[in-house]
């Protein structure tokens, strides 16, 4: 069997010397954007597709990286590699695809970890608040620099979908199609609440130092871990969590052996199945005759779901910037195109000129199908061409990053049949 | 109009000198339980109803406290005062109602804040892990001491409902009715996950000191605040949060005035309605011409939901014990009567002899109606008499503590028509 061709990605960076005014009234004097491109821009420059990322992703959307010996780096696939590449739903044999890291992020574009040219100090908490609209303006300048006037499509999931929607409102003449996946016209109070708890965990971590932890040589990892754990719970569905973890314990042991627990992930003791007799209280029913194989601990891991969440939190705290977390969750909170039209989304979307594909997932409770349907309805109110797919997938919000055949089929078919170049 | 009679509550305490063996294999040598009673025990001692509390409640279930001058103390109503009292759904003119604070709690019963008689030191993290079954055994001893052999009913919501269910399995001959509100036969992985994040926030607070913060003269308030904020989000429904808070901001101000924000809750500036012109970027659509009245801040409060959650978190951190939080959430995690029957809830409930009333609330996503229906089905499988009401209420899990007419009506009618004395 022939091996599928490997798409090799190469990050690039573009410097912008012109001041970028921000929606807050502040501005960024000069900045860099990291980006990657896949496929070839055609002579008409009519086949460009911009990919917008969500909370913790980057410009590395598709393909893999090579090491110095020319070998594929382990686990270096882009975050939407299932979606984008040669012969994939968004086919890089046909389209020129651009991934860009947003301002304020921590993967190469100008953000809180970098030096403020005005002060010579690391930005930290002084990095200005950026919004979805600001990101779109910065992305538009990158397109200018690449010589691309009009996008065949702009595409994103979750917060990325908000950017795709904002593109059609801020630059209606520059977008022919918008693909908005697992997104919403704004956050509900509950979503803002989850963001706020995550931010409080970070900000109240004593190692946060008001956002200037860099100069103290520490990182607010406790807060980042909590933030990520909360995030993970809300990205999954109750169903998929029950299926994946249920009430499984990590390594059951006998209460008598609590002083010498096996390390996490170690094999369960051979006597795992042996049950202990209860303490024989008078009046206790049969239900107490057996004791479940718990460790009976309040601080150690007991259930597999706990182990999973701790692992995800630890991993995240190693690579993600705390100030970026605050900025990006705030961009989510602030996004609300209807807000300037008295809450009337139909009026807000009236200026869009693009055609749309909306996709949502049935078990996504963070960005539920109902929220996508609000966008669909507002587009229809304006006689805008919109296709909508509600995918019956068990994976919650995470589904937009996963390889679901129906989901991939819908996107493939949309690009094939509707997006001309 | 005559004033309704005031039910005056008076907390009492009972000492137990006999060792209580615990499900973990550990034991408590001696302990006290705080409790309150309302109404009169009849001559047959056949009208007693035990109320079991959930996470942060106590023995103070109904009535009010008086101050030294004999005046009603402000906001001293018991946590289920809407439900229990003279002429209320659980009528204390007819029933003798008992509220009891569970072992490991922080409202008077023996718990982590008290001295371990074996060491002379405050228990702290050394307080043994207690389970729903252990609580039921301790409650049974309180009934013994009060001379009550059989309960007319045992009743509780949420974790309290789990105790009511456990009563019917551990002491089937001592319970004639069980009223199980907004509860579940066990926690799902998602619920365990929320508990675990809350615990991690507490345990990783540097002021927690492994659970021995008392001797350091500090309290892990940061962790408690985060724990409570997470809890509050999950007790409410998305709908009620949107209705109550939506995307309302606290006190919008102009970006130019960001250096001198009004205090939280202060009146909005007079020019609140004046909108600021956007920075006039080329290519920006009409959506950017106006700027929403945000402060543009990542660390300060922007939305009302944030202000509400911070307030709730602050309040909770002032009065609740961190080790108690860990213990009680663990009791929730561990409860799983079907676990000892290979997950077969019908077999687990076969030993129950009580009649049941189950109540759930449509918007409760933490203890959803589907979980109550599992219990109903298992009871029906055993030909046990069960009434079930699914109340269409918008308030999420919190609904079980609120004064909903249909909910109150169902409980009133059950006690009136089914619970003989």
Give a quick rundown of the structure.
With 421 residues, the first copy, chain A, is of the alpha/beta class. Chain A has ten helices and 14 strands. In chain A, strands 1-4-8-5-9-10-13-14 form an eight-stranded mixed β-sheet, with helices on both faces. In chain A, strands 2-3 form a two-stranded antiparallel sheet.
Description:
The structure is a homodimer of 421-residue chains. With 421 residues, chain A is α/β, with parallel strands linked by helices. Chain A is built from 10 helices and 14 strands. The first copy, chain A, has helices at 132-145, 159-170, 189-203, 221-235, 238-244, 304-319, 322-334, 345-348, 369-381, 405-417, and strands at residues 12-16, 20-21, 27-28, 31-38, 48-52, 84-85, 90-91, 96-100, 153-157, 177-181, 276-277, 290-291, 355-361, 386-391. In chain A, the strands form 4 sheets. In chain A, strands 1-4-8-5-9-10-13-14 form an 8-stranded mixed beta sheet, sandwiched between helices. In chain A, strands 2-3 form a two-stranded antiparallel ribbon. The longest helix of chain A has 16 residues, at 304-319. The interface between A and B is large, with 94 and 94 residues.
- Form type of chain A: globular
Gyration radius of chain A (Cα, Å) is 24 Å
* Terminal residue distance of chain A: 32 Å
The largest sheet of chain A is:
8 strands, mixed
The low-pLDDT segments of chain A are 254-291
In total, the number of strands of chain A is 14
- Largest interchain contact: A-B, 94 and 94 residues
> What's the helix count of chain A?
10
Structural class of chain A: alpha/beta
Q: Give the helix proportion of chain A (percent range).
A: 25-40%
């Amino acid at each position: 069997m022939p091996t599928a061709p490997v798409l090799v990605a190469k990050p690039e960076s573009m410097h912008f010397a012109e001041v970028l005014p921000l929606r807050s009234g502040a501005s960024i004097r000069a900045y860099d954007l990291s980006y990657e491109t896949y496929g070839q821009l055609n002579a008409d420059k009519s086949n460009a597709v911009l990919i917008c990322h969500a909370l913790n992703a980057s410009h590395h959307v598709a393909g893999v990286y090579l090491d110095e010996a020319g070998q594929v780096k382990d686990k270096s696939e882009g975050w939407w590699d299932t979606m984008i590449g040669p012969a994939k739903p968004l086919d890089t044999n046909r389209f020129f695809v651009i991934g860009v890291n947003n301002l304020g992020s921590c993967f190469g574009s100008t953000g809180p970890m970098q030096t403020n040219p005005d002060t010579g100090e690391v930005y930290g908490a002084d990095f200005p608040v950026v919004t979805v609209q600001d990101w779109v303006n910065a992305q538009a300048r990158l397109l200018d620099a690449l010589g691309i006037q009009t996008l065949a499509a702009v595409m994103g999931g979750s917060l990325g979908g908000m950017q795709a929607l904002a593109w059609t409102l801020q630059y209606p003449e520059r977008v022919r199609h918008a693909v908005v996946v697992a997104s919403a016209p704004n956050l509900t109070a509950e979503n803002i609440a989850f963001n706020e708890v995550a931010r409080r965990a970070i900000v109240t971590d004593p190692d946060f130092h008001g956002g200037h932890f860099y100069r103290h040589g520490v990182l607010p990892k406790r807060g980042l871990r909590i933030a990520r754990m909360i995030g993970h719970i809300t990205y999954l569905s109750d169903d998929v969590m029950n299926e994946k973890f249920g009430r499984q314990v990590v390594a059951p042991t006998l209460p008598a052996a609590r002083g010498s627990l096996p390390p996490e992930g170690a094999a369960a003791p051979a006597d795992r199945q042996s049950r202990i007799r209860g303490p024989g209280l008078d009046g206790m029913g049969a239900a107490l005759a057996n004791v479940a194989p718990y460790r009976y601990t309040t601080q150690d891991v007991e259930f597999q779901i706990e182990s999973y969440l701790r692992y995800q939190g630890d991993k995240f705290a190693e690579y993600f910037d705390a100030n970026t977390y605050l900025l990006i969750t705030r961009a989510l909170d602030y996004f609300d195109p209807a807000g300037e039209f008295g809450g009337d989304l139909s009026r807000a979307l009236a200026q869009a000129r693009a055609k749309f594909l909306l996709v949502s997932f049935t078990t996504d409770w963070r960005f539920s199908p109902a929220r996508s349907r609000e966008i669909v309805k507002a587009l229809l109110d304006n006689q805008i061409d919109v296709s909508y797919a509600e995918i019956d997938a068990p994976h919650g919000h995470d589904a937009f990053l996963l390889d679901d055949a129906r989901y991939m089929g819908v996107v493939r078919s949309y690009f094939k049949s509707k997006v001309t170049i």
